[in-house]
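Course assignment 3, question 2. Fill in each field.
Student: A.L.
Task: Predict the tertiary structure for the chain below.
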Amino acid sequence: MVLDAFDRAAVTADASTSPISSAAIADLKKFVAEGNKRLDAVNAIASNASCIVSDAVAGIVCENQGLIQAGGNCYPNRRMAACLRDGEIILRYVTYALLAGDASVLDDRCLNGLKETYAALGVPATSSVRAIQIMKASSLAHINDTNTEANGGRRFRRMGSIQGDCSALTSEAASYFDRVISAIS
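Answer field:
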């Protein structure tokens, strides 16, 4: 069952046959108040998704040249394309979870059976985990708007997200990436 923060509060209260608690209402108020930051974070990731994913795949290839050689998991081109596609799908579901404030969409629609599928296809878990780690680092930099002109070169553009403390949102996004890493390890 795919939930958002509001559904989760209602289901939890329903399960205990009690009204939604004051603490849950306070959490929902905070969720709404921080809505623009959440939308900015999702936009920062979604706007840069292809770069985040292609940089992650390039990173794992640089670390392990055997991936693109005959017999490697990113050889021939169709396997490389599948790797890029899977990275984009995983990143998309991480942004869905971040937008909803709940990991159920990530678990139900993306991670359920992913490890078994990768094992059946012979996708190396170590390379997949490393790619997710790189995507995590890049995404968190975009959420915090800490990327710099020196790192971005002539293609640099600042997202201009709302200023303020994004540590809770960054921690939440990191937890979704960690969830993916845990699921495929």
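Instructor remarks: The first helix runs from residue 5 to 15. The chain has one domain: 35-184.
Grade: pending
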